[in-house]
Amino acid sequence: MSEQAHTQGACDGNAAPYVLGALSEAEHAAFVVHMETCAVCRDEVASLQVVADALPLAAPQLLPPPELKQRLMAQVRGEAAGAETPPERPRARRLPLWRPGFAPAVLAVAALIALLAVVLAGGGGTTTRSFRATVHPPGAAGVVTVSGTHAQLTLTGMPATERGRVYELWVKRGGAPAPTDALFTVTSAGRATVGVPGSAAGVKAVLVTSEPLGGSRTPTRPPAIVASIG
Amino acid sequence: MRDLADEELMQLVRRGHAPAFEVVYDRHAGVAFSLAYRMCAQRAVAEDIVQEAFLSLWRSGARYDRTRGSVRTWILGIVHNRAIDALRRSAVRERGRVSNEGLEERLAASERTDLEVARREEARELRVALETLPGEQSRVIELAYFGGLTQTEIATLLDTPVGTVKGRMRLGLAKMRLALGDPAEVAR
Prior knowledge:
The complex is a heterodimer. By secondary structure, chain A is an alpha+beta fold. Chain A is 33% helix and 23% strand. Chain A has six helices and nine strands. In chain A, a hairpin with a 2-residue loop joins strand 3 and strand 4 (150-156). The radius of gyration of chain A is 25 Å and the shape is flat. Chain B has ten helices and no strands. The relative contact order of chain B is 0.09. The model of chain B is unreliable at 104-111 (pLDDT under 50).
């Protein structure tokens, strides 16, 4: 069996370069689309992927420096502690509701707030606005819908992300776009609907970039989608 | 905690359990760091890549899908992709033999547990499988996987048609699969 024989035919022999990460971005995107309809390539990728997954063990095995773990665990413990703290704060500042005359006043304010919410919801107080996004992938389209303090991005015709990458949604309020935890991929038809995390108040733009798995703190690629709001 | 399987630990990590994350780190940081260092040949860059990879696991563990592979494979996939990004961003790629920066001296101390000894044996089998391939097949696999080169770049580097590069990659991986029996067990 010659080396050239494997590369002939419609599949172009890209399964092995694919599992080794040796396709260019354009080749990778095209091969991902090709695999959706080619069982031969899917099977070949599955067969070769297990070898590629084991390849890291072919590297000389080293112990990571202890200071790496110290830095990482300090950050992780700090974030774990930070995540637990916020719910405690309001409790510490809670006012004594049992004070004579205070509880009825609180109930009256709560009733007023509830009434206001009902009026706003029923009386057209919440309007829905749509903003068309500037989209860079050819054939794609995007719309951000803002309803009250909630915003949602709807995409169509988007290309699949490359292997090992996801789309990440960024929110721009004032300065540089801030990362969010909204990481997503698109369906085989190129569609995605993504809620914009947090309140839409003050958001000037919503952006989407392709990032490595797990997302990034700063964009590593130019935006594929930019939707200005307001 | 240390008796729990990776998938059970990940359920705790999703809920922000730092001790569970630490166990996952202890299990997989070695091979992750070794891969990053083999690819980038710079200790500081390798440390950054491993730190980023594990932080992404900590912050987005909810996106780990056990049906798509083991925790180890997921982490190593992140490390591999980030190392490729680092290599492709870098203006100067130095792909010579990696300097050890004193790191290989740490190996002797690492062979303490049965698990570590088993890992070393698996690593040895993998290296033997790769080294016993015909040179032109192991070279394209190493240039692609550890060097972060695209098939077109490899073809240019070796002055060989791209089709031949693809064929060598495929034949080499297929032979390694036969030599290793069930590579999925090795990768786990």
